[in-house]
Design a protein that fits this description.
237 residues; alpha/beta; Rossmann fold; 2 domains; ten-stranded mixed sheet; 5 helices; 10 strands
Amino acid sequence: MIAAAAPDAPVLPGALASPPNGATHAELFSGMQDCAGAAFALALEGQRAVPGDERAWLWVQDRTSLRQSGRPYRPGLPQGLRHRLIHVVATTPEDALFALEEGLRCRDLAFVVGEMAGNPRALSLTAHRRLSLAAEKHGVPLWLVRLGAERDLSSARQRWALRPAASLPPRWNAQTPGTAAWHAELFRARNHPSGEWILREGDGTLWAGASTGSARAGFESGIRPAQAEPVEARAHG
C-alpha cells in the first residue's frame, strides 16, 4: 500500500498502483552511483507483491552499470524478493536489450529490472518501443534504470528522476541507518499529472509526502509517517 504522509500531502499518481494487466514500462533516471533508481523499483514491487506469488523476477545489468553500482546484494533486497531473483550480466548494451525483451516475453516472471549506464546508441527510440510493446503484450512490468543518463527520446509510459533523500532519525537507536528515502519527480506520464514527492519506507508501507511545504517540514522535523492515516493510491483513469 502507498500512503500519504499528511492529510494535505498529495497521493501518488495512480501510475504507481498496479495497472489492470500488470504491465508498466517505466524509466528511472538516477545518479551514476547512488542506486536510487533500482531501490525505488524494488521498494514499489515489494509493496505491489501479491501474497503467495512466488514467481521469479529478472534483473539485467550491462557491464558499465555493473562497474558503477555493483551486483545486487541479496540480504539487502526486500525479504519477499530475495530468493526469487534471476540476475543477468550482459557484455554489451545490445545484449542487455535482448535479455530484457526476452524476459518481458516470459509471463512466468513477476517483473523485470534493467540497468543501463549513460546513453548507449543501442537504446534508440525503436528499442524503447520494442520494450514497451513486449511489456504490454505479455503483462510483465519493466523498470528501466538509467544511470547517469541524459533524458533522450523514449516510449516509456512513465519517466522518473530520482535521487536519495535524508532518512528520518531511527526511533530506537540513533546510531543505526534510517530507512530508505527518495526525492522522486514524475516528469512525464501518460494520463497522469507530473509532480514531485518525498517517498519513505516505514512500518511495511511506502509513504508519500509533498517535496515542499508542510509535509516536507513534518518529515524533516522527525514526525513519523505512522502518525498519519494511510491513504491507498487510486488510479486516475
